Structures are given as C-alpha cells and as structure tokens.
Amino acid sequence: MSGRPAAPADLTALCERAVERARAHGAAVADVCAESSLAFTVRVHGGAVDTLKQSGTLGLGVRAIVGGAVGFASGTDLSPDGLDDLARRAVAMASFATPDEANDVPSPDEAGPPFTGDLELDDAAAYELLPERKIEMALELERLTLAADARVTRTDGASVSSAGGAFAMANSRGVSRAWQGTSVSAWVVALADDRDGRQQTGAEGMSVRHLADLHSLDSMARRAAIRAVNRLGARTVPSARVPVVMHPDIAAAWISEMIEAWSGESVLKRSSWLTELLGETIASPLVTLVDDATLPRRVGSSPYDGEGLSARRNVLLDHGKLAMFLYDHYHARRAGRASTANGLRGWSSTPGIGTHNLYLEPGTDSPEMLLRRVDRGFYYDDQGSFGFNPVTGDYSFQAQGYWIENGERTYPVDGITVAGNSLAMLKAIAGVANDLEWRSAVASPTLLISEMTISGS
Q1: Where on the phi/psi map is residue 236: left (φ > 0), alpha (ψ -120 to 50), or beta?
Q2: Where are the domains of the chain?
Q3: Helix, strand, coil share of the chain (percent; to 5)
Q4: What pTM was estimated for this model as a whole?
Q5: Element (H, E) at 264
Q6: In the chain, count of helices (H) and strands (E)?
Q7: Rounded to an integer, what is the distance from CA 392 to the centroid of its chain?
Q8: Cα–Cα distance between 386 and 360 in angstroms, integer?
Q9: Between β-strands 429-432 and 29-45, what pairing exists: parallel, antiparallel or unpaired?
C-alpha cells in the first residue's frame, strides 16, 4: 500500500451529486455509497516471494426507489457524465423490480446524531509501511517460525498485508456520512513432520487497525511453531460424551457460524433456530454476547453503518437471555422494528445485515482454572471440515486438540468429530475464561461446555 485513498469529503461530494442526479431522473428516494481503497498483500513460501497483490478501488453505487421498487447500478466512472449514467440506469432498473413498501432509506432522526467519539481507525504508520518492508516482514516471519523449533521443517506460507480506505454515503432524506480507516495483518502456518508421513499444523496471526498493535513477528512465529509440534504423535480416542474446553479460536469460529440465527432476515423467513425465542433464556447466565461498532482501534469498528446510522453497542445475549435480533433498515421496516445499525454494504452492493465487532464477554476464571474443573474430557483447539446447519444450529466438526485427565492436558488428539446442538451447547456453558483477545472482528475467551459428543475410534 502506497499513497492514500480519496478523502472522505471528496467521496461525500460524489455521493451527494449522484443523489441529485437520481432524483432528477425520477427516483422518489435514493441513496448512494462510494468507496476508495488501497491494499497490498505479500505471501512468501520457502524463503521466496510466492505472490504479490496490490490493488486500488474507487467506485460508487446508486440505489434508486421508484414506486416502492428498487433499482441499483454501480461503476467506476465518477465523472459528471458517469454519475449521471449510473443514476439513470438505477432508476431504469427499478421498473423491472417488484414494489415493496418496506423499501426506503433512513431519515435524519432514524440515523441519529453524528458520531462524536474518536474510534482511532486510521493509522499513518499503516500508510507509510512500504511494500519492501512488508516483504521483509513476511520473509522474517517465515524464518522465525522455522527457527523456533527444529521439528518445524517448513511452513504453509507466511503473509503480511495492509489496507486503507474511505467510505461515504448520502441519501435523499439528508443523511450524509463518511469515515476512513486502515488495517494491517500478518499470518503464518507452521508444519511439523509426524509419523507415517503426516504433518501437524500450527497457525497464528491477527488483523489490527494500527501497526503498533500487531504482535511481534517473533511471538507469532513461536506460537505457530508450538501449536504444530505439540500435536506430534496425535491419536484418536474412544467415542464418548465428555466436557469440552474450547480454545478462543474455536469458540470465535462457533460464534461466527451461529450469528446468522440473529439476522432479522433469517427470523422473518423463519429459517433461524431462534425465531420463536426472543426474550427467553436460551444460554447459561455466564453468557453475554455483544456486537459493538464503537470499540476503539478494532477492525470491525466504524462510526456509522452502511446506511448512515450512528454506531452502537448491541447486546444479543444478556446473561443468557435472548435480548434482540439484528436489522438493517429494510428488514427492520418489514419486522415493524427499528434498525440496529447493522446495515453493511460496499460500493458495488445494496445493504445487508452484518456484524461489527462480535464477541462473548470474558469471565473471571483463567483458562487453567477451567481445565482443572475437568476430570476427563477434550481440549479443542483446531477444527477441520465444515459441519454447521444454520437452520437448526446443529454443530459437527472434525477436531484436533488434547485429551484432558485430572485437569491437565495429557496427549494430542486428532481423528475425531465433536458434535452438538448450539442451543444445548449455549445452555451447557459451565465456564467462561478471562482471556479475551482480539485477532479479528470476532473474538471469544476460552469456554467450558459441560458435555458434547466425541466420535472417535
């Protein structure tokens, strides 16, 4: 990444101009979003550069509502003629769509006042990180991973990336919002040779807004190597129903799978396993699940959602109680509710429901304290092939980890499947650790689930 994307004020001016043109062409209501971004990614493998990707985007999308029907057009020609053509095409496309009285855009009152906090989303150091330095960092990350343990004989690659961008939106009701931000990421996968030609893997990495928040390359390399070599000699275990301790990575992955059940669209379609349970206690009182756009320096944060609503903190599970569902403006109108500021979009798409920073609030126990509560069970820290049913919440994944005996991890385990149903798993959470750590836009501390099915030998 070199240089900077277009300024938010410049994007705002383009959006407002395109709204005017959509109205001139016959749109009763219109909104426009524009994005400018610069990104760079390097992946190295075997001590050499494997791939380099550098990209830049400057695009704009127009959504026009005519007679309750929506038309949408997007493009990268942002000249006056180009904006006029996009607006004209969006209005024309509406004539082919089905009218729906829920189609509308937020008013200033619905959008809320301008966000006044400083989320610290933009980092000058991320823009100044030269491509040559990012290549050096990726090569160094791979070298350090190989040097961390002699049993790590190669890697599945190491990568470093950075991105910076600005987003703006405006609608015909007078809402106009813009912001900008950066991100920096680093990842590595260590490979350790095991018996019978097998390999054990250990992945480590994170994405942050500010370069200064990135963990040291040495610490990431060591953690990846440790995860790989600790799995050497893994074996299966007999099938059983036992307590499961979920590593934060696994718990966060489970949350990512489950979150579709909180989507207002899924609830309206009755394709969510939570549809009839609003207001009921569906999880352990230890569980509070939050989606928060207002956390400073987090990769999922933004002062507004994609429709211009001011950022907010949404509590989805409140000490086990199903407290709310998530909505963009359209699905909120369909449901007779207010938007939860979860309308996310890009310049080439219309809004949809998404999350910002999704996490399970930490408890007070250390991960070791949770382990000591398990006489015989499974510590689950990696998973294989997909097995989640978003309609029923059924959960089934190939798993790796460690067998627990008398509160301690004993030997590595693979060749098993861990299964359960998400509602039952939520109710069975018997411990929530204090080790919440942000590595992406979804995070969780270590969890203890009192019983799950282990299918092994």
Answers
A1: beta
A2: 8-227, 234-457
A3: 25, 40, 35
A4: 0.96
A5: helix 264-268
A6: 11, 19
A7: 22
A8: 22
A9: unpaired
For residue 123, give both structure tokens: 């980092």
Token pair listed for 421: 């149903």
398 in Cβ contact with 384 (< 8 Å): yes
Cβ–Cβ contacts within 10 Å for residue 238, how many? Answer: 9
Burial of 11 (0-12, 13-18, 19+ CB in 10 A): buried
Q: Rounded to an integer, what distance in angstroms lies between the CA atom of residue 19 and that of residue 272?
A: 36
DSSP, res 114: P
- Cα 353 → chain centroid: 13
- CATH domain 8-227 topology: PmbA/TldD fold (3.30.2290)
- Report how far residue 223's alpha carbon sits from residue 439's, in angstroms, rounded to the nearest whole number: 14
DSSP per-residue codes, 71-91: EEEEES--SHHHHHHHHHHHH
Contact 416, 399 (CB under 8 A): yes
What is 176-221 written as a DSSP string?
A: EEEEEEEEEEEEEEEEEE-GGG-EEEEEEEEEESSGGGSPPHHHHH
Q: Please report, in tens digits, the pLDDT of each residue of the chain (457 residues total).
A: 556 889 999 999 999 999 999 999 999 999 999 999 999 999 999 999 999 999 999 999 999 999 999 999 999 999 999 999 999 999 999 999 999 999 999 999 999 999 998 999 999 999 999 999 999 999 999 999 999 999 999 999 999 999 999 999 999 999 999 999 999 999 999 999 998 778 999 999 999 999 999 999 999 999 999 999 999 999 999 999 999 999 999 999 999 999 999 999 999 999 999 999 999 999 999 999 999 999 999 999 999 999 999 999 999 999 999 999 999 999 999 999 999 999 999 999 999 999 999 999 999 999 999 999 999 999 999 998 878 999 999 999 999 999 999 999 999 999 999 999 999 999 999 999 999 999 999 999 999 999 999 999 8
Identity at 217, one-letter amino acid code: L
Q: In this structure, what token pair is assigned to residue 382?
A: 């990696």
List the structure tokens of 28.
């009763």
In which element (H, E) is residue 381 found? strand 376-383
What DSSP character marks residue 126?
A: H
Residues 3/129, Cβ–Cβ less than 8 Å = no
